[in-house]
Amino acid sequence: MEPFHYQNGQLYCENVPAAELAGRFGTPLFVYSQASILGTLRSLQAAFTAVDPLVCYSVKANSNLGILKIMAQHGSGFDVVSAGELYRVGLAGGEAGKTVFAGVGKTDDEIRAGLEAGVLMFNVESEAELAAVARVAAAVGKVAPIALRVNPDVDPKTHRYISTGKKESKFGMDIERAAKVAEAAVAIDSVRMIGMHMHIGSQITSTEPYAGAVAKGVELIDRLRKMGHPIAWYNMGGGYGINYRGHEARPVEEFARVIVPAVKAAGCRLAIEPGRVIAGNAGILLSRVLYTKQSGEKRFLIQDAAMNDLIRPALYESYHRIWPAVLPPGAAPAPEDSESPVAGTEPWDVVGPVCESGDFLAKDRPLPRLDTGDLLATFSAGAYGMVMASNYNTRPRAAEVLVDGPDARLVRRRETLEDLVRPELEIT
Ligand SMILES: *Cc1c(COP(=O)(O)O)cnc(C)c1O
Question: Which of 55, 56, 58, 67 is the best mutation target for the ligand 1 pocket, counting ligand atoms within 8 Å of the beta carbon and taking the most?
């Protein structure tokens, strides 16, 4: 059963009607399906099983403690990019020994926090960062396990803001530079290079870029070992794309087919850092229509979720499917394929209350006729949704609910106005 599906004109998350959740918890509301999250975790573990994979869920996609907790309980590791995310993993009962620490700008304090927690490895993104990790490790009397982040110069053919593996990216080092840095690292006693890391971008919907990257990675691992580095891990990063519009994503098994043989040939264990593929389609954003408005030819559906709740359309021009959570009489169920026309619809701009022209969830979107009080579902909102939410316009951030079969539990309460001003009042 699909985690989000229509039954008798009602959208359900697992066994719970979305309208019931909106009534209980209010809107805007993020709703997540536990079965979907754990199902994807299991299919990743299974697809890569031949290379003894460690799935390091990328915390930045959705860092809710309730989600991290169920991931940890089901054997997931974590990929963190800040001391804050590392702190969350600890609170959720995640193991530091299954956690990789990435990010281009780690501070000394963050490196120290990672060493004290005992992370599996640091993904080191530059020569200067290697020096910092070595210095901090020496100062606390530890040896830092590291992997160099290598930029294989492949084009993942995704949005330019989420492409990370090309030469001109701020992330990682090109292969020749990485080899030089690795040569120098041989003499550093306070680091131990146990892995090689790549993350080429996000929302990747073809296996080609991975195939190109992994071939270069295997060659480099051979060179690193010849220098004397005990490379045991091939960390292939994340980036597996999901269906936003229709059926554009590839099943994880297809990615495994190009990655597994190479990692096997390199004699490594595989680490992967999936974020979007786990959380993205496991979540929706529920909102309620406040007003409808027409000016000239333009129709606006003003609803209570805004760019401060889901910034992806404004930031990356990204597409999210949107459909009523309770179908008006005679309306078709949500179209499977967003490209095909649906009878009885008219184009609407779905906008929020924030005072910016960039505050929209969709433009010219064919929708059935809706009115004040109707519920809307914005799909594929589980990843890079709530984590990028802000308090712009002094709007409290939305509540989050995790559904497990017939049960729904609040995993983050709605913020109050007092929550928002507290740091400004408590300054004594
Ligand atoms: C963002 C990020 C990920 C997760 O990417 P997804 O596209 O969500 O799978 C993994 N690794 C690193 C280093 C990242 O920066």
Answer: 58
CATH number at residue 180: 3.20.20.10
Of the candidates 413, 410, 414, 403, the one whose C-alpha atom is nearest the C-alpha of residue 4 is 403
Ligand 1 contact, 3 CB (< 6 A): no
* Ligand 1 center–CA 275 separation, angstroms: 6
Which among 243, 274, 305 is the end of a domain? 274
User: Which pLDDT value is given to residue 171?
Assistant: 82
* Mean pLDDT for the stretch of residues 21-40: 98
- Using one digit for the tens of pLDDT, what is the confidence trace for 326-343? 998 888 887 777 767 788
56 is catalytic: no
162 pLDDT band, cuts 50/70/90, is low
Mean pLDDT of 302-309: 98
If one counts the domains in the chain, the total is: 2
Angle between helices 34-47 and 252-265 (to 10 degrees): 40
Q: Are 171 and 164 in contact (CB under 8 A)?
A: yes
| DSSP 8-state assignment for residue 14 | T
**Cα 425 to averaged position of ligand 1 atoms, centre (Å):** 36
Mutational test site, ligand 1, from 148, 250, 273, max ligand atoms within 8 Å of CB = 273
